[in-house]
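job 3f2a | input accepted
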Amino acid sequence: MKNTTMTGSLFRLLSLVALLLIPCLSFADEPLPIKGEHDALDFKPGEIIVKFKEGAPETSINSVLLAEKMSVLKEWGEVGIMLLSVPEGQEMEMIERLKRNPLVEYAEPNYIFRITSPIVIESPHALSSTTSIIPDDPYLQWNLAKIEAHAAWDITTGSDRVVIAVISTGVDLDHPELKDKIWTNKGEIPDNGLDDDGNGYKDDVHGWDFINWNGEPEDDVWHGTYISSIAAAETNNGVLIAGVSWGAEIMPIKVMELLYQDQEPVLYMILEDLNGGILYAADNGAKIIDLGIQLSGYDYPHSVQNVIDYAYSKGALVVAGSGDLLENSPPPDVYRYPAALEHVVSVAATGQDDELCDISCYNDKVDVAAPGCGGVWGVYIHPNCSKSVAASNSTWGAAAHVSGLAALIWSVNPHLTNDQVEEIIESTAVDLGEPGWDEYFGWGRIDAAAAVMATTHYLEVEPANVVDLGRVCDHGVLPKWTIINPNTNASTWHVMPTDEWLSVSGPYGLTPSSATVAIDPSHLQDYDVYTAGITAISVMTNYEHSPIIIPVTAVYTRCWESYLPLLFKDYSPD
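job 3f2a | predicted structure (574 res):
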């Protein structure tokens, strides 16, 4: 049995670190009413969340609202959830009355969650490794070697077509490790004050801040930035750390805010913001939704399950840490939400020797494990140190590894379903503990290389349609063009021409990889129309959508410059 209580010395260290960090943090001026220890909660006065049963007549719903003197503050039509205004002080009484109404599926408070996260600041040590792809990031750590990320990078470093939504405290949008990885909403025109794409959010160019209700989800803590950097930091750029997926984009969604209460920094979150954040991610194309939060110890969060079900139906893979064991928190085998909800990949935390971390909660909902203690480094924002790193012992740090791995798998085959991606992650995990599944490690600690190799390679190239070179001049510069594979490395595919008048160099490069096609003038003998093709094939063991044949046409003609001597020839008689 693992020791599942945090030692007093570690708590003293965490308390000291928290005190040291206080001058560097910014706090809310008007804290909401929060009470209790660690993850205890209260709720917003005068508000409740209600879902009426599917098929309930609108007239009947309106009658209930009128009879109970309730008004609609907000409605999420995708999932049929309402945020209702009720008389202050009567929230729980109204909830109990509604639960007895046959038209009501559930009713619950608009909870305010207090979230405590451990953090340890140390000096990172560089990783020594003999694997094939070693990026030049100085703080390349043991956790990446443990999950065989380097071998996975032989196949793909990750496509920028895969978007990971990080639902947390926002992201440091200008950090050198993340600024070029931030998702852009192509349907929105920046700073025009309009909802150009009609999704209900004005100027949401780079995600959404549900705390301040604007399109600038800037991280003023460190939590969301840390998660994002583990999953998808800019890699091989000589700065700080490497992300599991070099290419994946990050969709920042801010639902948590830091406030100062009783001279201690506290993160808080309102239930309606969490629900809105999950729906935003699902509706705006996130393939992976990383829930960097813990709502443990409360009643079953009905509305959160509804919005997660919706995200799942949209094809998203939802990931969350199994839960962090903190001082005075419930026992480690008690369910933590949202990890214990259906359609969530629950991730336990392991250390350098594949042991279960002391802080990692366990139960029959755990699916897999990933590195989460013993110094897992990520980007840490600091007002005076823009290039800081932090090591945290946490299951949400472990979950970030799974999010990054899911992005790599979807890069190899973008046509997989969320269930297929989860099955690949679980079936290729390194079995720990009791043989097969167990409540401590789930199906085992993730193995990125095994997962990527087990994924059927779906070959994609651009362009994949006819390449018309038009008129090719006999004395001009002969054209070259590039074939791009946006999803995998050069080692995964091969390109060859079907005729001698075309030549190919490559493929070369990491993701995206490419090959250069050129015309060989020695095989263009006659002025004529030339047709041929370029064949791209996957060289992976398992593949589909291969070979791809790209037709190529060109008209080889005499250049007008070759007629110049004739134009200036002296035709006068001698």
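job 3f2a | The chain has a mean pLDDT of 85.
job 3f2a | closed
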